[in-house]
Description:
Helix content is 13%, strand content 44%. It is mostly beta strands. The termini are far apart.
Amino acid sequence: xxxMFRFYRDCILLRLDTPGLRSPFVEIIKAHDEDxxxxxxxxxxxxxFLVVASLNAEPFTGYGIExxxxxxxxxxxxxxxxxxxxxxxxxxxxxPLDSAGGTLTLDLPACGIAVYVRRN
Length: 120
């Protein structure tokens, strides 16, 4: 239970400490029923976040998310429910990801969630 408690604590603290994750501004980037993937963008002032959730039973390697609002930006993963500190398998994206042409390619954990922040 300690790993799950840490996950919930860190998730709640991230939301409380990050106005962009509480803002009323939200845009659905991807909703793919067959892959069971949902991605949405939230922002506040100059802060911009991408939240990606996979309910698929298997992880994805090199999963593409394409949307015009992602174009020309760099994204850094700041939270992943698949982090080993939470008991996950470690399907992470530790390096900044560039979305050249509006396509962001990332690794997605099975039944997990990840949060990315836009880097300038």
